[in-house]
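Practice record 12: protein with 6-O-phosphono-beta-D-fructofuranose.
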Amino acid sequence: MKRRIGILTSGGDCPGLNATIRAVAKACYEKMGTENVEIIGISDGFGGLINNEAKVMKPSDFSGILTRGGTILGTSRTPYKKMLVIEDDNVDKVKNMKETYKSLKLDCLLTLGGNGTHKTANLLSSEGLNVIGLPKTIDNDIFGTDVTFGFHSAVDIATDVIDRLHTTACSHSRIMLVEIMGNKAGWLTLYAGIAGGADGIIIPEIPYDIDKVIAAVRKRVESGKNFSIIAVAEGAFDKEEAELKKKERMKIRKEAGIITATSRIAAQITEATGIESRVCVPGHMLRGGSPSAYDRVLATKFGAYAAKLIAEEDYGNTVAMINGIVGANPLSEIAGKTKFVPENHQLVQTAKALGISFGD
Ligand code: F6P
């Protein structure tokens, strides 16, 4: 009997998804024999599972995709909180997903995704499906794993952005603020900020005081530096906003005509110092293109480990890097949790030791 393995990618894409898909497929074929494995690619995330959009993949589909960005399967966002809600279209999403799993005669389902994906994966696992998760996201905020694939590629891209901003900031004697993706967790901003030699790093886990940010800029001016670079996570907020619920915060920002804090910080710096400040938002470029060498290796390790779990019929887990060793965590133990940057994380301390301001 052929082992039928369903695979989907869900949530925001990132470099390394295809490398992981390839590793799972190659390792499954190698371990169980090509003739004993059938891989079914489910289109566009959980949407494909809900609407029964899937196709049987051939071994050749997995060739030449190690370096390819994005996902050959397509992806979509189906928020977890909507999974259990029957909306106007009258679709019972959970029922449909279970039916698709059954109609495709799957032995297991692999879900490559971030925090939202893991919540749905855990839901399907608790509904009796054989599920294995794989941790992807440029945000690096999945609980229980040292690192997610996609993260280090994004760190490399964001670092390159900061490098390029350095030369132009210096030429024009400007303050350059770079807004880096990461709504809840500041890992990407922290790593890229350090790798790119930013003078300020502002992340959601450490609410900032604008006076401290301005003081840091002034200190650089006084020491003869004609420019500064500040890396700001898209989800950053100040100490006053930290007292508010997210909804209230967003309402106040909407009234003020801003979405993220970056442009506000830039305006406040210019007002206080008279120095021209500019904002650069690389946005989705941080998620585009080929995975870095680090991510190709990580994706290959994770994919091969997932194949081992499949061969052993060890389901209900998500693959993880646990203290430097590839292993797995039960989905039920990590779903719904976020890995934030601890305020006293060693990298935060390292940055502070160099005089990088967090505005705290
Ligand atoms: O979760 C990855 C991520 O890139 C976040 O850093 C960012 O906040 C979000 O996705 C953007 O999502 P979308 O591409 O759906 O706008």
